Amino acid sequence: EIVMTQSPATLSVSPGERATLSCRASQSVSSDLAWYQQKPGQAPRLLIYGASNTATGMPVRFSGSGSGTEFTLTISSLRSEDFGVYYCQHYNSWPHTFGQGTRLEI
Amino acid sequence: VQLVESGGGVVQPGRSLRLSCAASGFSFSIYGMHWVRLAPGKGLEWVAVIWNDGSNKYYADSVNGRFIISRDNSKNTLYLQMNSLRDEDTAVYYCARASGAFDFWGQGALVTVSS
Question: Is B100 part of the contact surface with chain A (CB cutoff 8 Å)?
């Protein structure tokens, strides 16, 4: 099983600032990596797929990078509605494990 | 695209429950489908997957042998049969459509395992 490790666990950022979230895989997942945003009481929402492709309808301030074992989600200019928990997930092999999440506080 | 889960509720340990996920707005029969859960105070946990034609299924170790994923493409519906439920199965259960990444999710069904 591939273990996904996210850092930091919690990130506090002010509106307008840049936020950088990290995700590391215990072995290579190529570019089979997605990022999701989840707010309390809501379903997760796909932000990034294929490590760097922004999902349809997602704001351009969200971007992803990386391949292999190291990945980054960047939010270029934070807005108040960006609070929530962010998860990375690989879909390279079974099981499609998630990271433990990064809580983004505005 | 719409995914709507149903069948959640309160159940005693050791008992069974079946979740359903009704799909609409897309060609259900050409997509693999997943179940994912979110336990209180925990992160997302992938639970199970079923191929578009039902030919293959995979499970997380935590539910393997107790949960069964299935689908009825004629009814555009995904199922999760949960047997021998444990306290640690308490969670919100989401169905999700797979296109590699999980691009659409249902709103979730709450399952509470408690005596």
Answer: yes
A44/B contact by beta carbon, under 8 A: yes
**B43–A43: do the CB atoms touch at under 8 Å?**
no
Asked if B80 and B18 count as a contact pair (C-beta separation under 8 A), the reply is yes
Nearest 5 degrees, angle CA B106-CA B107-CA B113?
105
Confidence of residue A11 (pLDDT cuts 50, 70, 90): very high
Q: What is the pLDDT of residues A29-88, one digit of tens each?
A: 999 999 999 999 999 999 999 999 999 999 999 999 999 999 999 999 999 999 999 999
| Chain A residue with minimum CA distance to B4 | A43
d(CA A29, CA A92): 5
